[in-house]
C-alpha cells in the first residue's frame, strides 16, 4: 500500500475539474455589450442607456450558479472519478457487480478488524505519551536541556500519531522549513494537518482552549514549551490576539507559530480567502501547501456533518491518508502592499503549488450568508453602464 | 412533458441537496450577490407555493437547454418545447412582469430596474429611463409592454445563444 501511494505522489495533482457547465469568462460589461450589439440595428455611437435584453445576462448568470457554483461544492467531500472501495465515497456509482461487492466486503473486514484496532492502540500510545512526556519535561528547569527534551517528546508523539492514521507523507523542499520568529501558514483541510506538519518540525500552536481531552492535551503541552492558547472570550478581541502573536514572534527563542488563515476546513480542492490578521504582524511568513490524495481516504472534516470522534474513526478506517507537503520559500510583506494583498499573494503561491483552485470567497460562507457589499458592487458596475452612457448623450 | 427535458443529463446535474424552499437557493453565495437573484429564485416556484420539487426544478432549468439544429424542423404539430426561442423570451418576460398580468407596466419596470442598479441612480433618472424604454417598445399606446411588443423589441437579439447553458459532459 505504501509503495503504491508513494508512486502516485510523484505526479503533480491536477486541479479540480471545472464543473459541469460551460461558462464564459467574460465580464459583466462585455457580456451586456455583446447582447446589445446583436440586437441593435442602430449605429453604435448612439449606444442606448438601457435595453430590455440586459436582463438576459443576469438571468443566465443566476441559472449557471444554481446549476454549478464555485463555493458550495468546497464544503463537502471531493468526488472521486473511480471508486476506492469505501462505501462513504459511493456517490451513485452504477456499475457495482457481485465481484466488486465481495471485494468491498473483504475490504471492510480488513479495515475494521485488522487495521482499526492497531491504529487505535497506536493513537492511545501516542496521546498518552504526549501528555505524560510533556508534563514530565515541564518539571525540568528552564534551559537548553528542557528545550531539547520538549522538542523530541513532541516530535516522537506526533510521529506515533502519524503512524496511527497510516499517513503517508511526502515532504518537498525541506530546506524552506519555518524558522524561529516566523509564522507558518497552510491551507486547512482537517485537524490532521496539525499532526502532519508537527511531525516534521517544531511549532508553537495557536488555538482556542477546549475542554475535555483536548484541554488536557493543551495544558500538558504548554508546560513543556510556550504555545499560544486563547480563552474563548479572548478570541473575539482581535487586538489582543494580534498583540500576543506579535510578542511571541518577536522572541527569537520561541518556536514558529502555526496558523491556518482560512479559519475553517475546506475540502482540499481549493484555497479560500485568508484572514488578514496573521499577515498584519510583520513577521516572515513561511507558506506551506498541503494536498491530500483522495484515492486512499478523504481527509476533509465536514464539521457540520461529523463530530470529532466520528471523524477520527472514519480516518482510522480508511485505507490510508496520503498527502504531499510543500514548503514554499519564505515571504515578507512588501512596502507598497497592505495586509490583504499580501495574504492574497501568499494564498496564490500555495494554490499554485498544491494544484488547488484559488478562490476569493470567504470560507466562513460555510455557515454565514454572503455580505451585501458584493451585491452592491455588481449593482454599481451595472449602473455605470447605464449612467455612463447617459452622460455621453447629454453631451451630444 | 418528459420529452422536453430528456435532453438534460440528470445524473450530471449536481443536485444532491433536496431543494425545498427559497432559503436553499439563497445559500448559494454567487446567486445571493446577483442583483436579480430573488426574481430568478421566484421563477422556480409555481404560483403561490413555497416549495419546489425536482420535477418543477427541472422544468425551469429546461428553458435553458441549447436549441439543437435538428430539432428545429421536427414535430411541428406537437407541443412547443420548453427551450424554444419563444419560451425563452417568455421566461425573461416573466422576470419583468411582477404581478403576472402579461404586461410590463411602468411601475414594474421601475422596480426591476431598481433591483439591478441598487442605490446608484436617482429616482428621476431611473424614471426617465423607464419612460424611454416603454415609449420605444409600446405600439398599442397602453403605456405598458405586452409580450408581443417585448418580442418585437428583441427580435434581433440572439436569444438562443444568450439564454442557453451548455453542459460539458
From TrEMBL, chain A:
Subcellular location: Membrane
Lineage summary: Eukaryota, Metazoa, Chordata, Craniata, Vertebrata
Keyword annotations from UniProtKB, A to Z: Acyltransferase, Lipid biosynthesis, Lipid metabolism, Membrane, Phospholipid biosynthesis, Phospholipid metabolism, Transferase, Transmembrane, Transmembrane helix
TM spans (from-to): 96-114, 120-141
Record's protein name: Glycerol-3-phosphate acyltransferase 4 isoform X3
UniProt pathway annotation: Phospholipid metabolism; Lipid metabolism
InterPro entries from the UniProt entry: LPCAT1-like, Plipid/glycerol_acylTrfase
Any one of the GO CC terms: membrane
Main subcellular localisation: membrane
Phospholipid/glycerol acyltransferase domain mapped to chain residues: 182-293
Family: Belongs to the 1-acyl-sn-glycerol-3-phosphate acyltransferase family.
Protein biosynthesis recorded as keyword: no
Organism of origin: Sapajus apella (Brown-capped capuchin)
Gene Ontology BP, a term: phospholipid biosynthetic process
Molecular functions per Gene Ontology: glycerol-3-phosphate O-acyltransferase activity; lysophosphatidic acid acyltransferase activity
UniProtKB/TrEMBL annotation, chain B:
UniProt keyword terms in alphabetical order: Calcium, Cell membrane, Cytoplasm, Lipoprotein, Membrane, Metal-binding, Myristate, Nucleus, Phosphoprotein, Protein transport, Repeat, Transport
Record domain EF-hand: where: 84-119, 125-160
Chief subcellular location: membrane
Localisation per UniProt entry: Cell membrane; Cytoplasm; Nucleus
Alphabetical list of Pfam families matching this protein: EF-hand_7
Keyword 4Fe-4S: no
InterPro entries: Calcineurin_B_homologous, EF-hand-dom_pair, EF_Hand_1_Ca_BS, EF_hand_dom
Taxonomy, superkingdom: Eukaryota
A molecular-function term among this protein's GO annotations: calcium ion binding
GO biological process annotation, one example: protein transport
GO CC field: cytoplasm; nucleus; plasma membrane
PANTHER family: EG:114D9.1 PROTEIN-RELATED
Similarity annotation: Belongs to the calcineurin regulatory subunit family. CHP subfamily.
Protein known as: Calcineurin B homologous protein 1 isoform X2
Organism, scientific name: Sapajus apella (Brown-capped capuchin)
Gene designation per UniProt: CHP1
